[in-house]
Each structure stands twice: as C-alpha cells, then as structure tokens.
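Shall we go through a protein fold together, starting from nothing but its sequence? Label the sequence line and the structure token line clearly, so we can match residues to local backbone shapes. Would you write everything just below, so we can both look at the same thing?
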Amino acid sequence: MRVQKILVSQPRPTSEKSPYFDLEQKHGVEIVFRPFIKVEAMTPREFRAQKVAIPEHTAIIFTAKTAIDHFFKLCETMRITMPDDQKYFCTSESIANYLQKYIVYRKRKVFFSKTGKFVDLIPQIVKHKTEKYFLAVSDVNTGAEAELLDKSKINYDRAAVYRTVSNDFTPDEPFDYQMLVFFSPQGIESLVKNFPNYQQGDTAIATFGAATAAAARDAGLRIDIEAPSPAAPSMPAAIDNFLKSLNPPA
C-alpha cells in the first residue's frame, strides 16, 4: 500500500508550524484540507422556535469557539446586548480567551476548566449555583454536557445557536485519496451522503474520538488509524506512526 495523498476533513491550519506540514515533508505526501461538514447560523426565527430567551440567563456556557461566534452574531441580529456583569464559563482557557473578540475580558466574570474537559468545569459552575445558565450548542450536540449539569442540579437551558450540515462535493471534484481523516460522526455521515456507493478498498480510514470511530464502523468502514491513544495522543502523531509502519527505516 502506498499513501501519496491524504484528505484531512478540517479547514487548512492558519499556522505554517502545523504538524501536518511536517508530515508532508517527512513522508513525501500531499495533504489536502477539505471539511466534509460546515456550520451555518441559526436564523432568529429558528432560534425562537426553541422557546429559550437569552436575556433571562445570567451565565453562558461555551464548549467551542464556533459556538461563541454564532452566539454573538445571533445576539447582534436579535438586538440582544449582554450586560456587563454577565458571567461566562468555558471548557478551556483557549475558548475563554477567544471571548475577547466580543467582550471586555475580566477574570471575575470569565471561568474555564484547566484541563479542557467539561467535567472539570462543573465545580466552578456549582460554586455559582444561583446563576441561570444558557448552554450554547450545535444542532447535533450529544447532550453529554446536559447530563452533567442535570446531575449537579444546575438551573440551565440548552439551545442550538448553529447547525452542522454536509459540505457536499461537486461532480467534477477529484476524490483520489489513499487516506481519509475524520474528526466527527457528521463527517462520516457526509461521506456516505456524498458517495452512497463508496467502496473503501485499500483506502486507509483515520478517526479521532470514540464517537467518530463508532460512526465509521456503523457505516461498514474499516478503521486503520484510531486516535487518540497512549502512543499517539494527536491525529498527526497517529498518522506519522501509520506511515512509518508502511515504510519502516532500514
């Protein structure tokens, strides 16, 4: 098996220091960044149909930068202004820092998990149990965060502020890859939608996360690379190990 061209179903990295570019040079492969899915904004009408009023909440929970972008765009469209004392809870410091794009950042009103895991954000949420929380999610959210909030008896509402849809391929778009890399179940669904008669053959499939792997197996795909793992905590590391196995050093 010879891997020459890899499709990574994510947007192209903005930094030239991305480990994916190192893989290209190290293994002499071409990596194409082409998302299988894309996000779209919820319209005010669609949001109102969820019967959740943002101004009724004193704290907002974000689990992704995409949610931040679409939440504030939705607020702007609906002419909703966040009060200065609004509190924000984020699953990572990176997501919390991203809030500076839309608010004046003050530590007393922005909280985040030091591990990047939602479960480790719960203690801080519990410390502010009198707040009424708004959990901003996508339309395909699994509800895992809601289960933890329910268990902690937190007063909250969950609503989608954006949707995830298939990023369809055009009829003349080449699909000549020896490896496909997926990061979400929706990416697998998009593959099946775009290529209903898809035959994997010798093409290597790489998946990140248990949910993505489960979706791939349900679709009848063979998984050749599964991350994260103790030996490969990141997808670039997992791909590196796989390519090494195809062409081991003498």
